[in-house]
Write a structure and sequence with these properties.
Blueprint lengths: L1 E4 L2 E7 H7 L8 E3 L7 H5 L6 H13 L5 H11 L6 E5 L2 E5 L9 H15 L7 E6 L3 H10 L5 E8 L5 H8 L5 E7 L2 H12 L2 H6 L1 E4 L5 H19 L6 E6 L4 H11 L4 E8 L4 H8 L23 H7 L4 H7 E5 L2 H15 L5 H14 L6 E6 L12 H5 L5 H6 L7 E4 L2 H9 L1
């Protein structure tokens, strides 16, 4: 498997190098030189396969000779060891529950796969791997649990002060061992900018072996394709062949993975990019003008991204046919008030509790379906509602089954280090 930088197609590396280097020095992102299509036979018979079987076939097709088949199978069996069920709420409205992993968020798919890939490629005696990650909420917890105790690795998580939920913060800051958490006095975009600057700093790269666990890393993106194929397989079992996916979107890695799955042959009818007030991409889809902006804080905090990194990958995938992207992807954005309304409407209609991010995806799906009857709609539930206790009514709270690991978290003590929004401060910390 060969990958190139989106900023320089002549700069090509193998999968191992792309995983460990995360981001090219030219500040592009790595993309496969070739995106292979899965066979029609496999696609038409997806309903006969389990999630791990689907994950193996997709990964093997995409990665090629990057890892031997038996090794890849063992890696996937270890990483993807929890379900991702599609739950029917009403005719043509389904929720894809992606919160059944250790950190109770969809990021477990990417973080667990990536940590095991890195561990697989690390050779005895090699320099310690320093993993940097910026989080707007759920990424950090998934990466922390994915890498916790992995030999010869050290993880440093940057998160915006006061802008993640209490449960999310505890997942980031209470692990100890090889996991460190930095509370940055700024926004997620600030945290992301600091991480990107670290990768292009010569002194840091000389002293440390840096890599990223954000969705800028291709090893995060690939496993997120698995659950799109698996969701389609579940709908095939119910006789549904025309499917639209509504995706809560922040850094646009999630929907980027869905578009990669489409490129590999998954017959998706429509992708719906659902955002909060941070509407950079929906605005682009309406106007054709891409204008990054400062992020705005909302109750759907994991989507508080004003300049989504993965848009670079999406634009690259469709660089020869942007008109096709405009046909394939529709964008909607909602205020906090509209998000709360959607949470209440979902609860009233189905006695089902959704987190704010999931509510935004549901609202976007229902709005799109008003003009597209007969298409089965799947909205992605990206996090367990227990991670956002402050946004629910008492009636909703009573319906939330809080997992045991969350109850245990509440007894732990934060070990976060506070830093200003300053690259010099971050650099000094990392070089200590």
């Amino acid at each position: 498997m060969k990958l190139y930088s989106t900023n320089n197609t002549a700069h090509q590396v193998n999968f191992k190098e792309a995983v460990f280097n995360s981001m090219p020095q030219d500040r592009g992102l790595y993309m496969p030189v070739d995106i292979p299509r899965l066979s029609d036979e496999f696609i038409h018979n997806l309903h006969h396969y389990t999630l791990p079987q689907i994950a193996f076939e997709v990964a093997k097709t995409l990665l090629g000779d990057a890892t031997p088949g038996p090794d890849l199978q063992a890696l996937i069996d270890d990483a993807v060891n929890f379900p991702a069920p599609v739950v029917k709420l009403e005719e043509d409205a389904y929720v894809l529950e992606l919160f059944h992993g250790p950190s109770l968020a969809f990021k477990d798919f990417g973080a667990r796969f990536m940590s095991r890939v890195m561990s697989y490629f690390l050779q005895p005696g090699e320099k310690q791997l320093d993993v940097l990650v910026a989080t707007s909420g759920d990424t950090g917890g998934a990466v922390a649990l994915g890498f916790l105790g992995v030999p010869n690795t050290r993880v440093t998580i940057l998160y915006p002060k006061g802008k993640v939920s209490n449960i999310q913060e505890l997942q980031l800051t209470t692990n100890g061992q090889n996991i460190r958490a930095l509370e940055i006095d700024g926004t997620f975009d600030d945290c992301q900018a600091l991480v990107k600057q670290a990768f292009t700093d010569a002194e840091l790269n000389e002293a440390l072996r840096l890599t990223s666990a954000n969705s800028i890393n291709i090893a995060r993106l690939i496993p997120q394709t698995f659950y799109y194929f698996n969701a389609y397989a579940q709908l095939l079992r119910q006789g549904k062949k025309q499917v639209a996916f509504a995706v809560p979107s922040g850094n646009f890695g999630n929907i980027g993975a869905g578009l990669l799955a489409w490129k590999m042959g998954l017959p998706v009818h429509q992708f719906i990019a659902a955002t909060n007030a941070n509407d950079t991409v929906p605005a682009f889809l309406k106007t054709g003008v891409y204008e990054p902006k400062a992020s705005v804080q909302t109750i759907a905090n994991a989507m508080d991204v004003g300049n989504p990194s993965n848009w670079m990958r999406i634009a690259d995938m469709f660089k020869e046919d942007m008109a096709k992207l405009s046909q394939l992807m529709t964008g909607y954005s909602y205020t906090d008030e509209q998000t709360r309304e959607a949470m209440q409407q979902v609860f009233d209609a189905y006695q089902y509790v959704v987190c704010p991010h999931t509510a935004i995806a549901w609202r976007a799906l229902k709005e799109w379906q008003q003009a597209h009857a007969g298409v089965a709609g799947v909205f992605l539930s990206t996090a367990h509602p227990c991670k956002f206790p402050d946004v629910f009514t008492p009636a909703m709270t009573q319906h939330i089954d809080v997992p045991q690991q969350v109850k245990e978290l509440e007894a732990k003590i934060s070990q976060a280090v506070s830093l200003p929004n300053s690259f010099d401060a971050l650099k000094s910390y990392l070089l200590q």
